[in-house]
Design brief:
Length: 282
């Protein structure tokens, strides 16, 4: 969310998203992650109105300022980032940016416009087709870090690339087979998707140029990982680590997001495998 986004607009947006989607379990989970269970369970009407479909349910969402940690007298006039201490965790938990993009374009523009959202929106769309919910999580972190925390954005960009490559290769969970370094992951993913530069034959049209373009994919992926590992991105708990200027950080992150989107779209474009014939003798 933009650093100058108004708290009042953020509250309206969160209320709309919650009213449209939340169940009792969702409310209780929100209470756990914001340490505000007592606010939710102690409200006289909130959960009861939800379960019974009462007309006053919308009014019951007035508990949101307390859940977001707001000092009520500052909510209307202040900035969301300053007035709502729990904003980031709630925003990420409910996928606010993606929901607003699909359901309330005006509020989405008011809260997210000018934050480099175009390329991230494309990533969100590719992730939806690809079926990787984790990509949305990384995109949300990158969206926040682009302006406020370049190191966080670079760390999340490296995780985004790694998540996408593992999904392309069908490496899910945390088993030993998933513990491949980034150069190995990008090499295997490129081979699987027919994007390996060394696989371009000399007699193919534009062979040399295609090799350069395809080779740049690996360079961006490996370069992002190397920057993060060198301490320019979060993830290693360094004390007094190096700091990358904001302009370079945005360049690195934007390139990583574009490459991740490309891999997601390339994978989504593959024809699905034919179903196995149940009558075959296995």
């Amino acid at each position: 969310m933009r650093a100058d986004a108004k708290a009042s607009q953020a509250l309206v947006a969160i209320a709309k998203a919650i009213e449209a989607r939340f169940s009792k379990g969702d409310w209780l989970m929100l209470g756990l992650i914001t340490d505000s269970q007592d606010v939710i369970t102690g409200h006289r009407r909130l959960l009861r109105s939800l379960e019974w479909g009462d007309e006053d349910y919308s009014g019951s969402v007035q508990v949101l300022p307390s859940i977001l940690g707001a000092a009520r007298e500052r909510v209307v006039a202040g900035r969301a980032a300053e007035c709502l201490p729990n904003l980031r965790v709630v925003e990420e938990h409910i996928g606010l940016g993606a929901w607003l993009r699909d359901n309330d374009s005006a509020l989405h523009k008011a809260l997210y416009a000018g934050q480099g959202t175009a390329v991230l929106d494309e990533l969100d769309e590719a992730a939806e087709r690809f079926g990787i919910p984790d990509i949305d999580m990384h995109a949300a972190r990158i969206r926040r870090g682009l302006h406020d925390d370049p190191a966080q954005a670079i760390g999340s960009a490296k995780e985004l690339l790694e998540t996408t490559l593992k999904a392309v290769l069908g490496l899910h969970g945390s088993g030993p087979e998933t513990r491949l370094d980034v150069p190995r992951l990008v090499k295997l993913a490129n081979v699987k998707l027919g994007l390996d530069a060394s696989g371009v034959a000399n007699d193919e049209p534009g062979a040399a140029h295609r090799r350069k373009v395809l080779g740049s994919l690996a360079q961006i992926v490996n370069g992002t990982a190397e920057l993060r590992n060198a301490g320019f991105g979060t993830g290693h708990g360094l004390s007094r680590g190096p700091v990358l200027d904001v302009a370079t950080a945005r360049l690195v992150v934007s390139a990583a997001v574009a490459v991740s989107t490309f891999y997601a779209e390339a994978y989504a474009a593959l024809e699905p495998p034919s179903p196995i014939d149940p009558d075959l003798p296995f």
